[in-house]
Amino acid sequence: MTARNLEALQALAGESVNCVIAWPASAIGRDGVINLRRKFGELRRVLAKTGSVWLRLADTGQRDELAGMPWRAALALQADGWIVRNAVVLQRSISLEREERRLGSAHELLFLLVKERTYYFDLDALGETSGTGVRELRAKRPGDVWSVERDGNRGGCLRLTLRCIAATCPPGGTVLDPFCSKGTTAVAARQLGRNFVGVTPDVMRSAA
Length: 208
Description:
This protein is α/β, with parallel strands linked by helices. It has a single domain, classed as Rossmann fold (3-Layer(aba) Sandwich). It is built from 5 helices and 12 strands.
């Protein structure tokens, strides 16, 4: 996170965002957790009381052991006052990295964080669809293990982004991407009829 990036968030009006898609481009280390908490301080200010944040994180390894960074980050944010509502397991293809003395990594974590216990959440948007195209939610409540396609671009999973926005951003609401780079969140927001604000290290852009 650069100073200019933080300044862009500070320029946004308070409680002007309904949903945040926060997917850092790479795994974070201990310094990354500190920077993440700084950024989330501003996200808390701009997020509506009924708003939500989706935070996607992968773990890092240090000295042949996992660092546990996703949960370290989530617990640090919880200590800052965020409510951790879900830790969704994103099941994906096994990593191509070669390691003969441990299992291949095949998942990441997607945390759902909120400011208040009363927040916007459209459970119907997460329903399964049958072969006829009819959404079947009541018969099967969505779980917290989701399959995602590995497309070589961590930030570019459009179907996953659509799902998150549809569930936690009301129609006509505003979606913020504080790690905007690939434009996937902007595409998803536009497809769903939501407004979009994206923050990159160099510029803030928006689209209705």
